[in-house]
Design goal:
alpha/beta; Aspartate Aminotransferase, domain 1; Aspartate Aminotransferase, domain 2; four-stranded antiparallel β-sheet; 14 helices; binds glutamine
Length: about 375
């Protein structure tokens, strides 16, 4: 009997979909999968309504020209280096297909964002994981990063602001990473989908330090609170966009045309309306609410510098038991580790949810932890 290729071992449901499904089933508060519960801004919705019925056929695989121009304008790059993709996930997949293959290694940090591992393996390459240190905060270990680089290494796959840790590279770290990439002649894939979601300094854009070797990944879904729209982008080093776009044409061919048109209008509108500033303020308040709530329960938290995620140490309990018996869905730290063991009791909380849900989650957690401590 014919069977599926062993590669389909990688087809397992993601932890994010799994926890969202269970949360819906059990009526739990979902602080697991990171997606906003409010609708996207009106300027985006109205632009999409105008575009449907007008911009409905295939666009070039590299993207709708006016969207490439809008992205280039927003990021201060040239449109020739911009490729539009079906979300950040397809952007990363197109880069995996374009940059490495069997026998190659890709160095990344652990904890890692889930898609990095299967995408690297589907391309035939092997992920090499460098553990981040967890002291009072998440720290990158640059000597360990250099030790992980070998003759087979093709690329560094990096993220700042980082999901799940919420950490952001300092200027010195970014410079040292770029120096390493130059010394070993490596590509850098810089996943910057949370580029506008920071709480202190704006994060460093790695491509500005090494435009010749950095591929930047961005996401309209994250910036404009429309994660289901699947509009993302890649900024490539000069001259490489046509090949990368040529690779993505074999998967989705192009992204949803009217939504590309809507994002083209929304990117300048977001700047004009101060939308990202509003986003940072609103997420910053919810971050504080969640962090103070967890601290009031005596839990250790690691304050994020960016993203809408916060990591914390809970007693060593099971995420699925907490969901079923405590009615709160969070992501277990183990979901972000494959090589090294996850720190004991590590969990990731998403705070892109209404304040009322965050408050309710803290109450539920308090009740659950009291029962758990007594049992
Ligand atoms: N980026 C989101 C998270 O980390 C969701 C990822 C997904 O479900 N594909 O929760």
């Amino acid at each position: 009997m014919a069977s599926l290729h062993p590669r389909t071992q990688l087809s397992k449901e993601s932890v994010f979909s799994h926890m969202s499904r269970l949360a819906a089933q059990h009526g739990a508060i979902n602080l697991g999968q990171g997606f906003p519960s409010n609708p996207p801004p009106n300027f985006l919705l109205e632009a999409a309504r105008r575009a449907i019925g007008t911009v409905d056929q295939y666009t070039p695989p590299i993207g709708l020209p006016r969207l490439r121009e809008a992205i280039a304008e927003d990021l201060a790059v040239v449109p020739e280096n911009v490729v539009v993709t079906a979300g950040g996930t397809e952007a990363l997949h197109a880069l995996a297909e374009s940059l490495y293959g069997p026998g190659d290694e890709v160095v990344m940090f652990e904890p890692y964002f889930d898609v990095y591992i299967p995408q690297t393996r589907i391309a035939g390459a092997e992920p090499v994981l460098v553990p981040m240190r967890l002291t009072d905060r998440w720290e990158v270990d640059l000597p360990a990063l250099e030790r992980a680089i070998g003759v087979r290494t093709q690329a560094l796959l990096l993220t700042s602001p980082y999901n799940p840790t919420g950490s952001v590279f300092s200027h010195a770290e970014a410079e040292q990473i770029v120096a390493l990439a130059r010394k070993h002649d490596l590509w850098i894939i810089s996943d910057e989908v949370y580029d506008e979601l920071y709480f202190n300094q704006p994060p460093i854009k790695l491509r500005e330090l090494a435009p010749e070797r950095v591929f930047t990944v961005g996401s309209a879904g994250k910036r404009l609170e429309a994660t289901g729209w699947r509009i993302g982008w890649i900024v490539t080093p000069p001259g490489l966009a046509p090949e990368v776009a040529g690779m993505r044409q074999w998967s989705s061919f192009c992204s949803a045309a009217p939504l590309q048109a809507a994002v083209a209008e929304a990117l300048p509108a977001a700047r004009k309306e101060g939308f990202y500033q509003h986003l940072r303020e609103s997420y910053g308040q919810r971050k504080d609410l969640l962090e103070q709530g967890l601290k009031s329960l005596g839990l250790k938290t690691f304050s994020p510098a960016g993203t809408y995620f916060l990591t914390a140490i809970l007693p060593d309990l099971e995420a699925e038991t907490l969901l079923r018996d405590g009615q709160v869905a969070v992501i277990p730290g183990s979901a972000f580790y494959i090589h090294n063991p996850a720190p004991r009791g590590l969990f990731r909380f998403a705070f892109c949810k209404p304040a009322s849900e965050i408050e309710r989650a803290i109450e539920l957690l308090q009740t659950y932890l009291e029962r758990w401590r007594l049992s």
